[in-house]
What does this fold into?
Amino acid sequence: ECNGDGSSCACAHDGDANGDGNLNVTDIVLVVGFIINGNTSDDLVCTSDVNMDGIVNVTDIVQMVGVIING
It folds into this structure.
């Protein structure tokens, strides 16, 4: 499921917002900036919607932090 509507996405939903192959604090900074400013791209939304509910919000950031901390 992608975008919360039953459709499929080709992205990984892995939190790698900047597409460098690593999930780290840089990705979290980008996602926080998106949430605050609303400036984004489709790719950023697709990779940053970690819980795949169709919305990029603090829940996704919490999951991203968990992955960083727990490996």
